[in-house]
Design goal:
Elements (H helix, E strand, L loop, with lengths): L6 E9 L5 H10 L14 E8 L2 E9 L11 H4 L4 E7 L3 H5 L1 H11 L5 E7 L11 H11 L2 E4 L8 H16 L1
Parallel strand pairs: 1-3, 1-4, 4-5, 5-6
Antiparallel strand pairs: 2-3
This protein binds guanosine-5'-diphosphate and magnesium ion (MG).
Guanosine-5'-diphosphate binds next to helix 1.
């Protein structure tokens, strides 16, 4: 019998409080959305199996547990990460302005080979948009990140966001 290689990719989700990190994760891993904002307690990561090019890949996605102050996220959180989703809320520009600080933090803990995706979440809130798609794209281009807008509420692009990152990690292996 042929040996099946195990693929396990650790992916971290970072960004300001209440941008929707936990809901992106629950939408991805369980197809669930939680309307009541409550701080993440206990659960550190969830694992979801994704198939890429016929290979089963386990995405182990880590969520911060109310540690969203800068430098409060411990190095254990970042350790071994091969992918990162850096999330802001398109209806709150302060969360976008803080992206560079999250990138700095990521850079101090992880090397540059980590696959990075800039995620503008809550794109269902078009009527109160505070960050243009253009601004998101431009920042991503400057910083060498993938870019996507998502909605954990209506599911737009959530699976795609994770799959692009997982594909990139897989590609970098070969
Ligand atoms: P976290 O602190 O980054 O983990 O954010 P949460 O996932 O706890 O979400 C914070 C709040 O934003 C909650 O009230 C969610 O219901 C809401 N939320 C999360 N994602 C979306 C989204 O895509 N669209 C909208 N409209 N609300 C969202
Ligand atoms: Mg959370």
């Amino acid at each position: 019998m042929e040996e099946e290689q195990e693929y396990l990719f650790k992916i971290v989700v970072i960004g300001d409080s209440a941008v929707g990190k936990s809901n992106l994760l629950s939408r991805f891993a369980r197809d669930e959305f939680d309307h009541n904002s409550k701080a993440t307690i206990g659960v550190e990561f969830q694992t979801q199996v994704v198939e890429i090019d016929g290979k089963e890949i386990k995405a182990q996605v880590w969520d911060t547990a109310g540690q969203e102050h800068f430098r409060a996220v411990t190095s254990a959180y970042y350790r071994g990460a091969v992918g990162a989703l850096i999330v802001y809320d398109i209806s709150r520009s302060t969360t976008f302005e803080n992206i560079r600080r999250w990138l700095d933090e990521l850079n101090t803990h992880c090397d540059t080979t980590v696959a990075r995706m800039l995620v503008g979440n809550k794109c269902d809130l078009e009527n109160i948009r505070d960050v243009s798609v253009e601004d998101g794209k431009n920042l991503a281009e400057e910083e060498g990140l993938f870019f996507i807008e998502t909605s954990a509420l209506d599911s737009t692009n959530v699976k795609t966001a994770f799959e692009i990152v997982i594909r990139e990690i897989y590609k970098n292996l070969s």
